[in-house]
Amino acid sequence: MQQPHSNKPDVSPFNGWVLSSRGHSYFTYSQQLLPFVSDESPFYRHRTPPVSASAWLAATETVQFSKVMVYTIFFLNSLITLATASPVPRVLHSSRSSAPLGFASLGPAPPDQSLKLRFGLASNNAPGLEAALLDVSTPSSANYGKHLTKDEVNAYLAPSNETLVAVQNWLSSNNVTAVSSSGAGDWLTATIPVSKANALLGANYETFVHVNSNTSFARTLKVSLPPEVAGHIDEVHPTTAFSKPLTAGPVVSIPARANSNDTQFVTPATLQALYGIPATPANQSSNGIAASWGQFAQIADVKSFLGQFRTDLSSSTTFFLQILDDGHNIQSVDQAGLEAVGTLSPISFDYLAHFHQNLDTQYTIGMASNVTVTFVSVGPDNQDGAFGFLDIVNFLSGEDNIPPVFTTSYGFNEIDGSKGLSTKLCNAYMGLGARGTSVLFSSGDGGVAGNAGNGEQCDTFQPTFPSSCPYVTSVGSTHGSGPEVASDFSSGGFSNIFPIPSYQADAVAGYLKALGSTNQGLFNTSGRGFPDIAAQGENVQIITGGAQVPVQGTSCSSPIFASVIALINDELIANGKPTLGFLNPFLYSNAAALNDVTSGSNPGCGTNGFPAKKGWDPVTGLGTPNFAALRKAARL
After folding, report:
1. How many domains does the chain have?
2. Which residues are annotated binding-site positions for Ca(2+)?
3. pTM of the entire structure?
4. Are residues 46 and 95 located together in one domain of the fold?
């Protein structure tokens, strides 16, 4: 740092500025002096001049460098500096040029509107957790099945003390109070008005409406953070992620395909025959399945379903309910949507959610005989899919005992979310897998168009999340039985966020080689491929509002495969062995234990999509379950 001349004056108490009287003026402030071009006098500045040189000279041409005058000058200078200071420097955190297709801006969000902000803090060792996950999940590893504890997982995902201090100091200095909202402490939650969020995040919140569902929420197209916290925060939500969940089905089923081999409805009995699934009840109290999302599942419908399709089970068999975010538990028949069932008229989002809940509970209870089923109901008040994903996974992560299987039938396009949000969620699923839970997600119902398959446009293939997360098992759909064929709505493809994981590298390479130049330029050849597996997803029978309804979608497929895993887990527990946990390394190293599906495709975006081929493909994955072969692969 350049030093003042030897005849130094007193140090001003204002902002650390020092004035030298060697015939010229110099300003210093703890760092190297930077020249400020002057018309008369060689002023210097740190970043920004306190005032123009000519203005300063005009004001001080008769000043004598007395102690009093020095203080007076610097007092005035400090006031001018405050008035003309440059904006606080910021680092761009995330941005998008416009809202995704299907969303429209209604203008600036009301400044007094309340926002619940989630701050996703950087974990101290996520790569270490990935290594530990693969170590305990790869059958050839000496540590296979030695799942981690909650505390061990949290030690990887927790933020460093440096990160916590930096973020808390930043929030406190802006009068924002945040509380921890995850077991690992890597998520903080604060509720503030839009006006404060705009200032805090360098944002410009607008009200956006999702045209098809007529739901609206506040979002911004740009977020920036101060340099001192930019490296400590992975995600702030809601900001640039437009993650309204798409339903991965089910929808009221179309009539049976002409000249097809799937004219028969799918029921527990047909699935047991097709996949060799036993009807023998499970008997291990520590076994279980958790299914999630939406609003409510009806106990009366479960009872009717068992009375019609599983007469060997007690009709009093039911499920446990966990409610988050003011979720619903509506049991009245008039809420079941009988009019929509009877007329097959357009179905509301809420009604589809009800379909989901009945499907998930009926096919986990009906297929995984006597396995304890917990349904997690998330309230609709936030009108935002990401809050539901965050709250569910953070709830499970904070529990001391979690079910060995978890299945969900919702997702959104990767492009509608954000890289930070997807990565944080994916790491949380990684934590569940490391603790011994198999996490399954439906792949989606828009073919290669993902959510755009629901009437929106696309010029490149659209992967769906969480299916694209390499730490979950993604489930596609099939139909028929002699042999099974890929459902044309079964979403699949390659992630634009996550690279190909090691466990599927050979399988993906083989498919891409066989694919050749087909669809070249429409997808990421270096991305994680999905789905991983498949199961029946058309003409699946459920009971809703007391009526039998055929539905279709990959949301039928995920609970079916989850039930297979739950039954295998039950035998493993009975034999004193660990549960399967994160499935993918096990599945890819035992591909012969699945029924390979080699016909069909998943069209979208004006193309025929990806064709199903021998081996893994991005329509049906490795194939559908063969219970006896999977049981043998699990060393039972």
Report:
1. 3
2. 596-597, 615, 617
3. 0.82
4. no
